[in-house]
Amino acid sequence: MGTWNGHLNKTIHGDVLLEIMKLDDIIKTPNKGIILIGTNIGLDKQDHTNLKSLIGSKIQVDKVDGTKCELDVLDISLSFSIANLPLIGISVKDSENIKDIKKGTQVVQLLDG
């Protein structure tokens, strides 16, 4: 198991991870490719402005078989639901792993630690 070492950071097996969102859906679009749609997991409004820094980085998600896969982030979008809850869209490079991603998993960014 991991150990918590900050508000949204935790360490697992020596890797520092930044939790981004909970994965709700995966959409394939003709213009943007694969988009992971998720809900906020506790970021305040100020942290939303930092989401663009994910572009060009790698994120990690759980697969249904219990393993993890890494995906390259191409773009980020942020919108708000009718209830004013943030919805995060992460456009990722297409991968053969997309079909095996487990919905409901937490999407994390692997940080240099």
Description:
The structure is a single chain. With 113 residues, this protein is mainly beta. It has a single domain, classed as Translation factors (Elongation Factor Tu (Ef-tu), domain 3), CATH 2.40.30.10. It has 1 helix and 8 strands; from the N terminus they run ββββαββββ. The chain has one helix at residues 45-48; strands at 3-4, 9-12, 15-29, 33-40, 58-62, 68-80, 86-92, 106-111. Strands 3-4-7-6-5-8 form a 6-stranded antiparallel β-barrel. The model is unreliable at 1-14 (pLDDT under 50).
Write the CATH fold name.
Elongation Factor Tu (Ef-tu), domain 3
Helix and strand composition category? mainly beta
Question: Strand order, biggest sheet?
Answer: 3-4-7-6-5-8
Helix percentage range: under 10%
- Beta-strand residue fraction: over 45%
CATH architecture: Beta Barrel
Mean model confidence by pLDDT: 79
Helix segment tally? 1
CATH superfamily: Translation factors
Number of structural domains: 1
User: What's the level 1 CATH class?
Assistant: Mainly Beta
Would you identify the regions where 5 or more consecutive residues have pLDDT less than 50?
1-14
